[in-house]
Design goal:
CATH topology: TIM Barrel
Mean pLDDT: 97
Largest sheet: 8 strands, parallel
Radius of gyration: 18 Å
Bound molecules: adenine, zinc ion
Number of domains: 1
Order of helices and strands: HEHHHHEHHEHEHEHEHEHHEHHHH
CATH class: Alpha Beta
Shape: globular
Structural class: alpha/beta
Distance between the termini: 24 Å
Protein name: Adenosine deaminase
Pathway: Purine metabolism; purine nucleoside salvage
Keywords: Hydrolase, Metal-binding, Nucleotide metabolism, Purine salvage, Zinc
Helix content: 40-55%
GO molecular function: adenine deaminase activity; metal ion binding
Strand content: 5-15%
Domain Adenosine deaminase: 11-326
CATH architecture: Alpha-Beta Barrel
Length: 326
Amino acid sequence: TDGDKFIDGLPKCELHLHIEGTLEPEMVFELAKRNNKALKYESVEKLREVYDFENLQSFLDIYYDGANVLIHEEDFYDLAFAYFKKAHEDNVLHAEIFFDPQTHTDRGVEFKDVIDGLTRARIDAEKEFGISAYYIMCFLKHLTEEEAIETLKQSIPYKDQIIGVGLDSTELGNPASKFKKVMKMSKDAGYQLVSHAGEEGPPEFVSDALDILNVERIDHGIRSLEDDKLIKRLAKEQIPLTLCPLSNCKLCVIDKMEDFPLQAFLDANICCTINSDDPSYFGGYLNDNFKCVNKSLNLTLEDLQTLAKNSFKASFAPETKKEEWI
Ligand code: ADE
Ligand code: ZN
């Protein structure tokens, strides 16, 4: 359709993407072979069949299991470079990409190998595609704050390669207060702060991320809509939300795409953005997310333009870059 063509041509930023969530089943098999790792699944098709989730946790179990094939520096390079190629095809000019060091260091992989592979891919992609990218290191909420502090320490020698720190993984049972100290330490170390909140958890989890952790951007935040006062605050303070429509459908945060409450966020003048979260697991990259939402919600071209503009506005790129892109 015309909308699809418009979306293809629209320059945009990706602000909520887990690099481990771009691991396609084909690459799982390739890396398993290269690294002599046995897999529980007999084929790519059989692996794809288990990508049927009922909530966040049922997804996370599969996602952490998949990451076991990532071992060497070149594995992280191949993973990230493949993503950059896809992102460039979607007319993504800039990406701010999450990585979960603990998922790897807990298995004996060196922090250095993770960040070196990712960084080398970023530099090569910048040269080959002209795409710009930053990395955001996430602490896993299901682990302890002490473990997050240990990871923060490991990151310091590489802090020039990392723009910020985020919090992801299991939301329920892991409130913002659990990570107050490590997030303050991260800010003091020069990192920008973001956090997943209000995906499965209630709106208070979003306010707590703002008040207790002082994050600058909320990842998901879809459940903010249950609190009028919070919605007014997000609009007034122009706190960006990185929404992920296909993710919300696949993890049963919403029943169907027609229920994705994008219009409510737009009407409230909130700086909302569209993102792909874990595209290999949720059925599509950034333009697939835009197209799906556009089709289900009958957006106007102006809405699509607003969403793309918001993505530049909400990014951590320098103002001069933003002006050039917008
Ligand atoms: N890790 C990867 N994707 C995630 C999501 N949608 N929510 C929380 N943690 C995640
Ligand atoms: Zn996420």
